[in-house]
Design brief:
By secondary structure, this protein is α/β, with parallel strands linked by helices. Helix content is 25%, strand content 34%. The protein is globular, with a radius of gyration of 12 Å.
């Protein structure tokens, strides 16, 4: 199924706490993006970031847009790119949602 969350492998532990940060308007999610994948999905923690695979190529912001759309669909909230227009390390902002809700919906 396109746009799924895969159960994290191994232990999540305190690493997941670095992935999510509360902000004034919601929650920031530190993400490691893998563009050009065969499937779009959230893989789980990858060091201090959430690994997200998307099928879009990293050209013209298409992979960034797909990550934002995937997270928005999974979380049921507005998601925007806050930092990292280029490169794989990015920060997405989830508006009007608490850190506990984000953690629960992403399985962290």
């Amino acid at each position: 199924m396109r746009g799924e969350i895969r159960p994290p492998t191994g232990t999540v532990g305190p690493v997941s706490h670095a992935i999510l940060t509360e902000t004034e308007t919601g929650v920031a999610i530190a993400v490691w993006v893998v563009p050009g994948s065969s499937r779009s999905q959230v893989d789980g923690p990858h060091g201090d970031r959430l690994k997200v695979r998307v099928s879009s190529p990293p050209e013209g912001g298409r992979a960034n847009d797909e990550v934002a759309e995937l997270l928005a669909r999974l979380l049921g909230a507005e998601v925007t790119l806050a930092a990292g227009m280029r490169g794989r390390a990015k920060v997405f902002e989830v508006n009007r949602m608490g850190i506990g809700d984000v953690r629960a919906k992403l399985g962290l």
